[in-house]
Amino acid sequence: MSDSGVGLLVALLGLAVGSFLNVCIHRLPRGASVIAPGSRCPDCRQPIRWFDNVPVASYVVLRARCRACRAPISPAYPLVEVTTAALFLVQFQVLGLQPLLVARLLFTAAMIVLFVVDLRHHVLPNVVTLPGIAVGLTCSVGLEPGWFDAWLGAAGGGGLLLGIAKAYAAVRGREGLGLGDVKMLAMIGAFLGLPLACVTLAWASLLGAAIGIGMMRIAGVGWQHPLPLGSFLALAAVAASLAGEPFLDWYSVATGGLLHRFLG
Question: How high is the pLDDT of residue 177?
Fold first, then answer.
């Protein structure tokens, strides 16, 4: 099969997985099972039939309304499905068809769930982060970044953020980071290794600072307004999985050149 054919299959897989991620996003914060019961309309509670549950297509055919009660369907549902398909396709284009692709697709799916759940509810479910650490470490046995780097990434990434959280609490006298963020960065380290976990934290911090400053200037919120660090970590982690290695190579060359000039 050609690369374009495989890419199409990967994108279709992303649409199907995105549909399941919508279930996870809706149910996990409520402590509900993602297996049973089947999908239902949140307004009238009528079961959604299979032909009304086709990713994106059903949303368009139904004109964004429930067939039974005509309640509006949130555009977040097709957006999650399309985003999952797009990111799956990008991962395939970067990695090609190889075993590491499976691990990165699992990682990407988990990051999408954590992004939306933290954005909406300011919580990072243990049912995603803790098994995620285990899955990342298991995948590392035969895949990048390797088992030692994965263990180092999980311990170092989580430990780094835990240290920052403890230091903040000691200086400010209140908590600034939750343990959910710590466990999430440990999961990222388990999948990507310590260097890319550090890149993720740096990029997420820059993104959070930029958005925080923008909100203060535009919306007039105070500097103590809570921001969903987990959502920033999810965005940065997916970016790091795709472009983190080239960035580290560039950074090494750039800083090496500056050091060489400085030392004369």
Answer: 77
> Three-state SS for 28?
helix
Regions of the chain short of the pLDDT cut 70: 176, 216, 219-226, 256-264
* Rounded Cα gap, residues 134 and 136, in angstroms: 5
pLDDT (0 to 100) of residue 165:
84
pTM for the full model? 0.93
- Rounded Cα gap, residues 235 and 37, in angstroms: 31
Query: Where do the structural domains in the chain lie, given as residue ranges?
Result: 1-97, 124-264
CA dihedral sign of residues 101, 180, 233, 81: positive
What distance in Å separates the CA atoms of residue 83 and residue 61, rounded to the nearest whole number? Answer: 20
Instruction: Please state whether the peptide bond connecting residue 47 to the residue before it is cis, i.e. omega within 30 degrees of 0.
Output: no
Tokens of 58: 């059903």
Widest distance between CA atoms in the chain: 75
Give whole-number Cα distances, 75 to 13, 72, 139, 229, in Å.
20, 9, 34, 24
At 86 the pLDDT is 98
